[in-house]
Structures
1.
Amino acid sequence: GVTPMHMPFEGTITLTPDTYQRVVTETCASTAQHGAKRLLILNWHEGNIPSLAIASEKLHREVGMSVIVVQACYVAAELYGHDCGGLTHGGEIEALAVLAYHPELVHLDRIEYSSDHSHGRKWDRLRRTRSYQPVLRDIKTIAATGWYGAPEHATAAKGLKMLNDIADAIAKECGEIFALLDEAQGGTAEIKHLKIAG
């Protein structure tokens, strides 16, 4: 995705916002050509949020899809943040998400050098507000080592439970939101009709 914040760390690959928007828009528009009318985009990476907002707007306005973008990392924080030390870069919530299906990628025995938690929380709190959104040079502004948190209590079983709980919450909420969208907008048929009439 769009991750210029992580480029100071070797091996990081990032897309430009324009490239990412085009990949999302063109991929999802293809599904519309095959009959998809509703689109649920699940995102876990905060760096993708602005690009997804633009891509989803385009998919709604130009392709005629009913679109919901879900920030799954924030759903995870709402459900598990109080038990897992909040949503931190490399903390327990993120470890759980990977442990659930790819435990071979997580090496809890190698955990060391977590950046200062209070410093990281301060910056995360600031950059996640709706009113003020500073643009940071890179992830080291938040965490000098690139991560902070306490993932040592993460297990694959807890990760699977977390992901199932997140999926259930998203399915329930999005089902209700799509019903509201259909009611308010007349479904995607109305959007296409307005596009033709306009």
2.
Amino acid sequence: MNRRDFLSGRPQTEETTLVEPLARTQTGLAPYSGAWSLSEVKHLLRRTRFGATKAECDHYLSIGLSGALNELLTPLATQPSPPLYTATAVYNDPNVPFGQTWVNAAYDALANGQRLRSFRSWWIGLMLQPDPGITERMVLFWHNHFVTEAATLGNAVMGYQNNALLRLHALGNFKTMTRAVTIDPGMLRYLNGYLNTASAPDENYGRELQELFTVGKDATGQPYYTEDDVKNAAKVLTGYRITFSNGTAYFDPNRHDTSDKVFSAYYGNAVIAGRSGTAGQDELDDLLDMIFSRQEVALLIARKLYRYFVYYEIDAATETDVIQPLADIFRNNNYEIIPALQALLGSEHFFDVANRGALIKTPIDFAVSHARDFAVAFPDATALEDQYALWYRIFSQASAMGQSIGDPPDVAGWPAYYSAPAYHELWINATTLPARNAFTDRMVSTGYTSGSSNISFDVVAYTETLADATDPNLLIQEVLDRHYCFDPSQTLKDYLKSFLLSGQAQDHYWTDAWDDYLADPTNTMYYGIVESRLQGMYQYLMNLAEYQLS
């Protein structure tokens, strides 16, 4: 793919749509032992976190790859505090005072919309935090895997509970998480599990459990399981109910199918013995034991992790050298997630130059990483309403770019993660690319305001953190090193410098202006000169194709 042509909206030639060659790269899961420089640090952090400040990059550079992976893959010591109610100006929730959490409150139809807004704001706030781990990236990964949609749930409490469940298990055991998700109130509502009874079976979850969540389909798109397997899985899962008003789930033995469930040859003709009473719940463990005995489960997750963290296409060499051994590691470690991530993110293949700058940033990554990369300051909890409102601004901008967290388009997730042949190119179109540019343009200028608070990219303050902002050439090079995956052409660097020189030819036109500002930073004229030049430069480099890549 010619990334520049694609991102610039130029029509693609037939050549750019050809399938990748059989062996795009020959590297595999052998541990990476090459250079550990800022380039490698940025690649690792771009793929595993939502942006990184200079201080964070320097920290990871100092502790080496092994230390970096240990920090990134450390589960949260404590789960984050729940979202708070801040929308008194819109609706004064009679059950939840301002600044208190609503996650344990009874359902309130009038408050639900504002609770959902609070949840989404809070989730963005977690992505923006300086926590050193990979957890929030994994929460988004699992949200795209075990999909639920807020619009279908209709209860923000259920949405929060589902999100908290994914975070709790984000770096844990996949099989354990699958069990928890299966009886999660939100999932029971989303895929009609709460309607699934012995007298009126509903096959939705029984199908998606196999097709999307565990074994998947073969290379030709045909399912491994049979329709009878779907029917019998649905029978196993009968009897689960929810109480919508408080977002809880329970098992009703009277609605459970107590017959024996016979599965196909794919599952070794397994029989799950029917049980009555509360013992009917135990059939779920038998079902998962049967499903997780299949090697396809590990292969499905290995491929999804690969496309999420490394590259969108899997050629024959990658299948042999990366996917299959990664699946073996996953399965041999009893579906523990950390060993698989440790192997993938620490591999020669992950750090192969062919895989750097090879993915288009997702909308969430684009918006959140922008704020973190450029140290955008958000209000703290003393301005709680403004804090949540400005977190929500990031959510709404990412939504305008095509990714509304909490509401994937359907049960399969966002197509850019799985839909061949376009994959990540689906993030960019005639609507979403201008939305990206409009977001960074505004952040460079006026930013977004709520009450007395504002978020924007302070171009002058940020430039002051550079090693040598007096020299326009060194300034531009450091900015590009921090924010681009590749070193661009000298022609582009010269064009960026023209903003700093106001079209003049000599470097001193910038140097003099910057020195004047440093000598008298309270002088509004000096400040205005450097600010306007820097705004033009940063705005231009953020609108280029290279800035869209991770």
3.
Amino acid sequence: MKLQPPQFIHLYWTCPLKLRQEEKGKRERGLPAFYSNVITTEELESIVNDIKGLIEDTIAFEYSSRKRKHELNEEQLESKHVMENIIANSVIQQINRTLQTNLATSRPHLLEAQTDFEPRVEAFWFAGGINPTEAIQKLRKNMPYLKLFEGDPINVRVQYLGKSVLHLRHDYPLKEIMSLSESENPSLEVPQFKFDPRVLGYTFKRRHGTNIPGFWPGDPCEFGLLSYHNRGHMHTRPETFDDESDALITQAIFASYSWLLSQACYQGFSTFQDITYPLVNQAVITNGQDWSFYVYQLNTTLLYAEHADENPRRNICWVTEPTKLFEKVEGEKVYGLNTDVLKSLIQFYVNAPAKRSEIDMKPYLGKSVQVIADITHTERREWLERRYKHLVTNRPRHRRMPEIYHWQKIYVLDNKTRPLDKKRHPFEFGINVLNRRLDDHTPRYIPRCLRANPKKRSVGRWEKTYYP
């Protein structure tokens, strides 16, 4: 950042739920055999018998007894996907509370875990290997030093914006399912997609790239254990698509990859600096009745330029098909409770994280100062904290960005018909407003009464800046 300060604004692709090759992931059906050893069969059966009645009471209350007319408006009550998400969120929260309460005595890591409700999850990365558009090829062809690279693939910037129902975090990461060397197995083929993202409905949006895993840097619980997601959006998809399973897998891959990538960024890795150890996430997608389970292991974050094709590592996602937790609810009674779903869910909760003492978890960060909170200089620490959080909010600036209007394009740029007009706009001075640096602004003015030496007018008028 010190060598090349970022610009005020960038152009990124926003991410709809459409699977692309940038996750560089391989899908495997069924949960890994690793989960057969996290808990014994006898203990698993005992836990299911203990919580079975509580789960039935929760389902019966949320689907039958609870009245929501006083909580929601008519539009929400009439919307099928909105109501499904509301009920699913309530069921998820109650089941999570039940499982944590009953398992915490025998699984201390659940007592140490943090639970976040509707956390803000954002991730940003560069995806390479994309075929250049005609406009880019034409631009390269007209530039002598780019003519040789006319047909070379391009990188696109991708920004994921998401929000899970809730997720659990811990001080230590989950144990790896497979080693990094195993992820380099060439038999794990990954489908490739090299077309321009606009063919899938992606859109451009100018914003700052952000990596936020639902908490701020410095939080001790910086590794994910489990995340819940709803699936009400499936009601908004045309039935003719007939791709429910693929859509859910896509949702799980995007959510898991993005959450793990943002966690990796807090450890000092990025889309340009590959991780040195794998990270694992457990994801659950449900509407309250249909439950599907996913395990995602992040093995690489290098997806740009030549790494899109030459990186031997693959990210792995294990998936299960949606399974009903119960058949129906009638008269405040639950029929056909499926204990296999509860067993899979319990296995996720009892999977304990472990400290990796033999690994340097933050190999690219400093030893004494790793986050802003570690800075001892009070004024610098507070300024950087305030500036960083304002930057990642992506709030619009109070002044609109200068633009070239149609009449200026016609009469000033293309046809020199207004030679006597006074030059007032940036483009008339050869200034590209998109190349403005992040530190290219007037510092905040300090009133004289708040200055250290108010008698000297020219001293201390502007706030100090502490850009790296």
4.
Amino acid sequence: MDGVGGMDGKVALVTGGSRGIGLAAARGLAQLGATVVLVGRTAESAGRAADLLLSEGLDVVPIGCDVSNADEVARMAQELGPLAAVDVLVCAAGVMSSPASRTIRSDPAEWSQVMETNLDGVFHVVHAFVPGMVERRSGRVITVSACLGRFTGPGTAGGLAPYRISKAAVNALTKNLAAEVSSRGVLADAMCPGHCRTDMGGTNAPRSAQEGADTIVWLATREVEGAQTGLLWEDRLVVPW
């Protein structure tokens, strides 16, 4: 990727790494020399994705973890040992809600599933790994948001209510996190990958997963000094929340 630095000796942890944007981000970070902890919901899904990247000569460690479960995230952090001292944290795990769902006509079970994965999952992972970044005074946190979660610009009305609301909440979490940790050498930003050809985006989407993950890799390799943070990015540019 153009305009990004190397990551030799760095550890990156990518949730949702077994497919889509997460898998593309894991590949991009590993291609720059990072050791990537690839997190999938199950050990089997993580293992399949890791085998693909390992066959490309990349340094990947698979682990299964349902990030919506705080106990599983704590177990993962313990099992990783030295690899828990991550330099880059990419929160890409997410699920979609049904297109017809509205705020007043959403299935409560679907609402809970979307919020537990898309929002609580980010919180659990941040809670487990960011305190170590603060102690080391170094780190990058990138949360995968969506244009549908923006308060301004395109996609501010319509269906998919639980998904939209969950991504808006992730934006708020990221902005608050940045305010808490930016003075301690840790950058925290959200990004919109755009409509990409993934399991969630469908085969007719205009962008590849690699194109969607480009901003993640770029954010992960920025220098801390003088960097803007606590922002929402798309195609390496700041966009309104």
